[in-house]
Amino acid sequence: MGMQPARLNCLLGWREDKTRLKPSDALIMGKIKNVECVLLARHGRQHTIMPTDVNYQANVWALREEGCTHLLATTACGSLREEIQPGDIVIIDQFIDRTTKRAQTLYDGRPTSPPGVSHIPMAEPFCTRTREVLLEVARGLGVKCHPQGTVLTIEGPRFSSRAESLMFRQWGADVINMTSVPEVVLAKEAGLCYASIAMATDYDCWKEHEEAVCVDNVLKTMKENANKASSILLTAIPLICTQEDWTHTIKALKTTAQSSIMLPKQH
């Protein structure tokens, strides 16, 4: 999720499925080296949905309903660390949530939602095993990749002030974006193996004598580095499928998700 599916569309011959669940765009379904996959553009294929308005619940639920076991996301981010340079990849492993307007759970009490209240544990929000595959692939491809990092997700759509950017550095955040939360939370509630490829596009605005983040620079760096994410995904997906059995990992995630739900008492 996150990457423009059209980059893979022309190579792999996909079909579209307009699901009833109202995700960000039609699901694009097909195979990568005989592995069945579903692609979904988080902001829509024309990038018309701002971060606050992305229907993260519908996106995650639609992928779960299609039988997906892994959710591999891509995200543009600003670097909050000198050593994470524009163009670098970060396989993020923790988050700080600064969003304010987003549904944080699939169990929100609506008639169409599953019953109960979910208190999902988030000590390890990202799937360690899936992250290890992405890291192994990135290194094998010669891509400069940081093995872990804390992402701070802001509400957006505006970028941070310099005071905010400096504060986020003091908090221990390594990169900043607008989309990882609540996506990672909902994926864990859904029992999916979730990992994210964060692509650093700039130094946000904390760094003196460096041009502050702007849309033009983000798009320029994304265009220059989009092939890195594509290559990692195209290599990692079949590798995930051919690795040792994922049954235990998936079962453990689903057990955690299920055991986190508190159902109303029956009278």
What is this entry, summarized?
It is built from seven helices and twelve strands. Residues 2-6 have low confidence and may be disordered. Helix 2 (56-65) runs parallel beside helix 5.
What can you tell me about this protein's structure?
With 267 residues, the protein is of the alpha/beta class. 34% of the residues lie in helices and 21% in strands. The chain has seven helices and twelve strands. It has helices at residues 6-12, 56-65, 128-140, 162-171, 180-189, 215-242, 247-259; strands at 15-17, 27-32, 35-39, 70-79, 89-91, 94-98, 117-118, 145-146, 150-154, 175-177, 193-202, 261-262. The strands form three sheets. Strands 6-9-10-4-11-5-8 form a seven-stranded mixed beta sheet, sandwiched between helices. Strands 1-2-3 form a three-stranded antiparallel beta sheet, with helices on one face. The protein has a two-stranded antiparallel ribbon with strand order 7-12. A hairpin with a 2-residue loop joins strand 2 and strand 3 (35-39). Substrate binds at residues 178, 202-204. The record marks 160, 215 as: Important for substrate specificity. One of its GO terms (molecular function) is S-methyl-5-thioadenosine phosphorylase activity.
How many extended strands? 12
- Rounded to the nearest angstrom, the radius of gyration is 18 Å
CATH-level-4 superfamily name: Nucleoside phosphorylase domain
* Shape field: globular
CATH architecture: 3-Layer(aba) Sandwich
Low-pLDDT windows of residues: 2-6
